[in-house]
Amino acid sequence: MRKVNLRMNEEYKYKVIKKLIETKGNKKAASMKIHCSLRTIDRLIIKYKENGKEGFIHKNRNRKPSITKSLEIRNQVITLYENKYTGANIKHFSELLLEHENIKVSDSAINGWLRKVGILSPKARRKTKNALNKALRERKKAATASKEKYEIEIKLEELDRYDAHPRRPRCAYFGELIQLDASPHVWFNGIITHLHLAIDDATGKIVGAYFDLQETLSAYYQITYQILTNYGIPAKFLTDRRTVFDYIRKNAPSDAEDTYTQFSYACHQLGIELESTSVPQAKGRVERLNQTLQSRLVIDLRLAGVKTVEEANKFLTTYLQKFNDQFSLPINSTKTVFEKQPDKKTINQTLSVISTRKLDAGHCIRYQNNYYAPITKTGRKAYWKKGMSALVIEAFDKNLYVNILDHLYLLELIPKREKLSKTFDLIVEQKPRIYHIPPMSHPWKQASFNAYLAKQKHRPEYGANV
């Protein structure tokens, strides 16, 4: 007769039922000892009489659960993470497995498998990191080879990186506060690019995103354009205090370089309050978003085969909708403070770069290392006295205009050399072209722009009281 080994609770039930039958005891007292019903006591008595001690062994013992994955799938998942999905957080990795590999595994199961082979999630908690840190230090003491010690030191350095952003309550209304920031990172193709982001504080929804090689005014104008065309005019922007916004440290910046004035002037015309801060923790919402996208978007860009900035910006158009559906809070249409969307013409005029210039002796203006001549609607050149002050306006659609004494002209590039010779080339006469010059609008008036410059404390040359 084979020996039957019972577990502690099974052994207790067996002894109670055995004593009940041998002494013909009270079933009710036995049910109170085992914490079960009288019907269960009757079933246990039948088991004892038919199978003896062996009848108390749980039927699921030594049986694998139906959801247990095979060793082959485990090894496949680990291999995929090490080779194809390196750096993905565990939750995102489980989503990618289902989407691309048709493998349905929970993130907790994957986490357990990866920990057994010494792989930790990039989003692991401090407690988990401390436990691994302790284990690695013990391994380092026991290690003899210098190569092994070096590899352990790299892992320890990665564990020491920890960024914290304090929590604060969300704003009450959609559009009440938009946080802006740019995140430099190796997003794709092994090069560092800057992802410019705009996130609504109330809902956590990404309302604007744009890739550029550097943190630039043009990129911030792009995400502002996305906000204005898709949602309307928000109440407030919160940005960091970097050189893309503030050039205080420069000795003599030009108006074209003074992007703080350009962006703030556009916000002033739209009625958007602009606040900048040098404390990253003050805008923790967008800082945490940077960390999330550095964990998830990099993997998705790699899987999509993105190589250039243009491809990355095209990829964002579909990715943002998917990301917002998964992570942002639902928008209550009755709790939005976005004002009416301005028309494309107003946006084009407002999101412009305005620079002050002087007319030279050749009746031209030098702008971005090129010479331009002011021309009228009929294509004729306009002649003004040397030294006249002018405002060069680069609209959002990249068209160039100039304001001279509140007269608006187009700027025509003066080429360094004629393309065709009037003497030796056949030139077909063309009808005079009529150019479209928009009517003078408030953002392009010289008096208005100069008055705004005078209010800037970091622009003393315009009469500001510092």
Report on this model:
The protein has four domains: 8-56; 71-159, no CATH class; 178-345, Nucleotidyltransferase, domain 5; 355-462, no CATH class. The chain is elongated, with a radius of gyration of 35 Å. Helix 1 (8-23) runs antiparallel to helix 2. Helices cover 40% and strands 15% of the residues. The longest helix is centred in the middle third of the chain and has 20 residues, at 284-303. The protein is of the alpha+beta class and 466 residues long. It has a six-stranded antiparallel sheet. A five-stranded mixed sheet has the order 3-2-1-4-5, sandwiched between helices. The chain contains 14 helices and eleven strands. The chain has helices spanning 8-23, 27-34, 38-51, 71-83, 90-101, 107-116, 126-142, 146-159, 217-230, 259-270, 284-303, 309-327, 344-350, 446-454; strands at 178-188, 191-200, 206-212, 236-240, 273-277, 353-358, 365-367, 370-375, 389-394, 400-404, 407-413. The chain starts with 7 loop residues before the first helix and ends in a 12-residue tail after the last helix. Residues 462-466 have low confidence and may be disordered. Strand 7 (365-367) and strand 8 form a beta hairpin.
